[in-house]
Task: structure prediction
Amino acid sequence: MKMSGRVVSCCVGLFLVLTSVSAVQKLDSINALKQINFGQSVPMHSLVLLHWFANTVDIDNNDVIQLTFNPNREDYGSHHYGNYEGLLDPLPPGRYRYYTVGNLNQDIPMPLPTYVVHPPTEYEGNNLDRIIFRVREHNTGWQAWQTIDQVYITQHYEDSYAGTSYDPAHTYRITINLLRQIREFSTERNQRNSLSELRNHFRSNIDDSQLRHLTNTWGKLACLGLLLFIVTQDKHPSNQHNNRPQHVARRNTQPDFLVNIPKRGQNYAYNIYRENIRDTTDL
Result:
C-alpha cells in the first residue's frame, strides 16, 4: 500500500505539473485576441506592448523569430526571468533562457518607444503587463546568434501581497501566426498596408469616417489605432467590405489615412508624431 500510495502521489504531482503547463491558453489569431477581456481582467496596454514586440523582432520565411536586441544588456529594460514559480514550461536541454520585457519605470540607455511608455489614457496599464519570451542561443564556433521559440503576454498580480509573481490565469501564449498578423499593422510608412486594406482583410466594421477620424487622432500611429479598434471593439466581423476568403495582405508604400479611438485630442497626436520621428529606430 505504501508503494501504491507513492505511485499515486507521483501521478497526481505529474498531473498537476502537466495541467499547469497546458493551462496556458494559446492565441493564434487576431480573432482569438478579441476573446480576451482587455480593459477588464487584462490591461489594454498589453496590446500596445505586444504590437511593439511583434514589430521589433524579425520573422523569416521559415517562421524563425530572430532576436533584434540584447536582453543580457537589458535593452528596452529586458532581463532574465527565472520561471521559479513554474508559470511556463521547464527549459529544455541546451542553451535556453526566459526573458521578460515591458517595465515602464526604468531609466536605461535604450528605453521603450514613447508611444509604449506614454500611450493614450485608455491604454495605460499601471505597469502590470509584460511579455515573456524564450530564447535559444546558437553557436557554430565561428558564429553565434539568438532565436525566440516561445512568446507570452502576462501580467503581475494587482495585489501587492503577491509580490512580483505573474498571474497564470492571465498568461497567454502568442503564436507566430498571430505575431505575423500584428506585423501587418506596422507603423513604418514604407512597409505598412493601407488602413482600408487592413480593414477589409480583417473584416472590420469600422467605416470610412471613423478611419479618417483615426488618422487625425493617431497620426503616424494610425495602424496601431486600427489594431486596437479591431481587437477591442470589433467583436463580430463584418461581411460588407469583403466576403471572399482573405489572403495575406500585401504591404505597400502608398500614403494612407489613419484611424481614431483614444480621446486625448490633436495635441496628443502632434506630440506623439514628434516623438516617433525620434523613436523610429526603436521599432
Summary: Strands lie at 25-27, 58-59, 65-66, 79-81, 96-101, 129-139, 144-155, 172-174. The two ends are 61 Å apart (CA to CA). Residues 7-20, 241-270, 276-283 have pLDDT under 50 and may be disordered. The first helix runs from residue 2 to 22.
